[in-house]
Amino acid sequence: MSSESDAASAVGSTSAGSSVSAGQPLTGVAVSPGRASGPVVRVAEALGEPAATPAPADPAAEAARIAPAAQAVAARLEKQAESASGEAETILITTAAMAADPALATQAEQLVKTQNLPASRAVYQAAEKFAEALAAAGGYMAERVRDIRDVRDRLVAELLGIDPPGVPELTSPSVLVARDLAPADTAGLDPAKVLALVTEEGGPTSHTAILARALGIPAVVAVRGLLALDAAALAVDGDAGTVAPADPAAPIVTATALGPVEWNGTGATADGHRVKVYGNVGSAADAQAAADAGAEGVGLFRTEFCYLDAPSEPSVEEQRKAYTAVLAPFRGKPVIVRTLDAGADKPLAFLSPEAEPNPALGVRGLRIAFDRPDVLDRQLEAIASAARDSGAEVSVMAPMVATAEEASWFADRVRAAGIARAGVMIEIPAAALTAREILDAVDFVSVGTNDLAQYTFAADRQLGAVAKLNDPWQPGLLRLLRFIGDAAKATGKPAGVCGEAAADPRLALVLAGLGLTSLSMNAPAVRAVGASLASVTLAECETIAAAALAATDPAAARAAAAR
Ligand SMILES: C=C(OP(=O)(O)O)C(=O)O
Ligand SMILES: [Mg+2]
């Protein structure tokens, strides 16, 4: 941590909130608790297509600007890489190498000379040609499309003399303001210099929310009017979901509401009531990260993440290998593998349904398997083999289940494949309301709060404009969760939560109090949730849950659950 942010934390411990609001607050969705106030740094917007005119007066001189600009971009990225580590460092080094690659500059120079284009436009067109070729190559190459476009935008910005898109290098602790943050925006982000994250768009399951919780910094998303706000400093309240102009001359303050971060690795309340803490994974790297973070197992393996760019159905053997690699770090430990959840926000090329007017309400998840049971059976065969190969204690569950009848159909197929434990996700309100009957048909359930909120509130989970409805602290959602917790208690069968709600250390206490038996989340949240559970007794969780349930809105529920 820098000395400046050390100073910021020291100030925060005694005077948090003292510089709050010199103006009217804006409201959004609180996604990561804590308060912070400090100078604003804006994340530059994506660049549009640069103009093809005016034609340069001296094409040779215009073309000669490209190589030095590429070198300058590469040098800046290399410098950033020096102070980064891990995956961020790798991303920055790779991007720098792409910027320095003479192939792009040479192509662009040709376009300036032959088509008399401004250098910025020539770079844009040349990069698009590379991007198209990479996309056509598919697989790993296609994943590089985003990188080449990133290099393109940096180079165009350099040539136009404007700020490059993405997060600028932070020189002192700042409140980061953006339309939304993409995963690439956050590579190289120095958490010690980010006081808070605030976005105009995004929702509780957005990348910004996940990142902020992982870093333990306050965040508010879906703040309408944020980008139009002309403020040099902001006070951010990650509990109340408010953002207000602050006095830029006032000292930087921070006060996070994070609980203790020490955790002994066994998910349980202080009086020993077990609530297992699992990891959500979609790749072998995620699985390793979850194991390293101390996850007791995997509560959600999103198998579709292995095949988002697969042009055709992977063979049983290919699937076996991919799943074994993900299961490997969890030998002897529980892992819940979810069968393909294709459709809506996660289309798979080989399982695309007919074009639908409302894909989120259409043939997705398990519904695809009703038409294509052969695909499900091949996947189950691969999962059963991977379970044997890896020695993990594998259970399988289905996504998008609406009725007990569907749950029973799925469980029969899982057992026929030689897999002992079958469960389903509860992410449709009808399934929550019939949780008891569903639990009678399967061995366990796991609640997908991301989709359960989307379907309960009829609010697209990807749309910032309706993000307030998708807040997992909404009493309407909490009451459905109580229903599921009651069904788990009545049947004595496990009911976990694997949606983003499980990653909120304070909401975790409410979930435990409602009777949910395990919580599964992205690796960075594991320790904070484990520590939060360990800090209270089950009776305290029940009191907190009752208080949150009785609230009339999410802010009141959060406040009621605060201790
Ligand atoms: C965990 C869930 O599944 P996904 O986010 O993959 O749809 C959910 O819906 O909460
Ligand atoms: Mg879901």
Indicate the topology.
Blueprint: H1 3-15, E1 26-27, E2 29-32, E3 35-42, H2 59-64, H3 66-82, H4 86-100, H5 102-115, H6 119-137, H7 139-143, H8 145-160, E4 174-178, E5 194-199, H9 207-215, E6 219-221, E7 233-237, E8 242-245, E9 253-255, E10 276-281, H10 284-293, E11 298-302, H11 316-327, E12 334-338, H12 366-371, H13 373-390, E13 393-398, H14 404-416, E14 421-426, H15 429-433, H16 435-441, E15 444-447, H17 449-457, H18 475-491, E16 495-497, H19 505-514, E17 518-521, H20 526-534, H21 538-550, H22 554-561
Helix pairs in contact: 3-4, 3-8, 4-8, 5-6, 6-8, 10-11, 11-13, 14-16, 16-18, 19-20, 19-21, 21-22
The structure holds phosphoenolpyruvate (PEP) and magnesium ion (MG).
Descriptive overview:
The chain is an alpha/beta fold and 563 residues long. The chain folds into 3 domains: 3-43 and 169-255, 3-Layer(bba) Sandwich (Glucose Oxidase, domain 1), CATH 3.50.30; 59-160, Enzyme I, Chain A, domain 2 (Orthogonal Bundle), CATH 1.10.274; 276-561, Phosphoenolpyruvate-binding domains (TIM Barrel, Alpha-Beta Barrel). Helices cover 45% and strands 14% of the residues. It contains 22 helices and 17 strands. The radius of gyration is 25 Å and the shape is globular. The two termini are 29 Å apart. The relative contact order is 0.11. Residues 300, 302, 341, 427, 448-451, 498-499 line the site of phosphoenolpyruvate. Keywords: Cytoplasm, Kinase, Magnesium, Metal-binding, Phosphotransferase system, Sugar transport, Transferase, Transport. Its main location: cytoplasm. Residues 1-35 are annotated as: Disordered.
